[in-house]
Amino acid sequence: xxxxxxxxxxxxxxxxxxxxxxxxxxxxxxxxxxxxxxxxxxxxxxxxxxxxxxxxxxxxxxxxxxxxxxxxxxxxxxxxxxxxxxxxxxxxxxxxxxxxxxxxxxxxxxxxxxxxxxxxxxxxxxxxxxxxxxxxxxxxxxxxxxxxxxxxxxxxxxxxxxxxxxxxxxxxxxxxxxxxxxxxxxxxxxxxxxxxxxxxxxxxxxxxxxxxxxxxxxxxxxxxxxxxxxxxxxxxxxxxxxxxxxxxxx
Length: 250
Hints:
Blueprint: E1 10-11, E2 14-15, E3 39-44, E4 54-56, E5 64-65, E6 71-72, E7 77-79, E8 86-90, E9 95-98, E10 103-112, E11 119-133, E12 141-146, E13 151-154, E14 159-164, E15 170-176, E16 178-183, E17 191-196, E18 199-203, E19 209-212, H1 219-229, H2 231-235
Parallel strand pairs: 11-12
Antiparallel strand pairs: 1-2, 3-6, 3-8, 4-5, 4-7, 7-10, 8-9, 9-11, 10-11, 11-14, 12-13, 13-16, 14-15, 15-18, 16-17, 18-19
């Protein structure tokens, strides 16, 4: 997949964000880098009852509501409550959905590595569970979800559920594609396990591991299936920009 170059303009402090933006001469960075990678809140149910998902910006003390189309970038942390879930999308069409009681930090997006030619996209899952439909920016991207005891690297077009549980274990289920899990006490000698379609793998708090049965019929799985089934209907009309510069998935 060709790397997408996203152009953005700041006008009176308003940062325009839209799902599936593509390059355009009408949107340019002012006094900034030539390439910007970012995401946005793409599905959420805001009720203003104290249970809505929140976003905390890097260096800011007070969180803000994760309202629809809210732009997200490196350093942002997204929280969900015990009653509400939400979905975020990156500008290359990668989709992440947060289960209830989840905390996820976007650490980097396509950051240049000092030791590899790869560019690193790191998401830090501090608690809860996420559903990931991963699309690579390009072949040089290394996309991974980090927990306290594991790093989960995803291959292009992989669909997986990753959870970090209260007992300190990391749980990975692959619905489609392939994930690689790295774990262990010695960072210079990590264990590595490949997880394939319909497989489940758990790294326990003591860094032992188990292969288990794929967990079917959970509430989170049913919610994701319902959204996937009605994707276009649920996402229709949420963009603040004209349709010609949108690109919706099949």
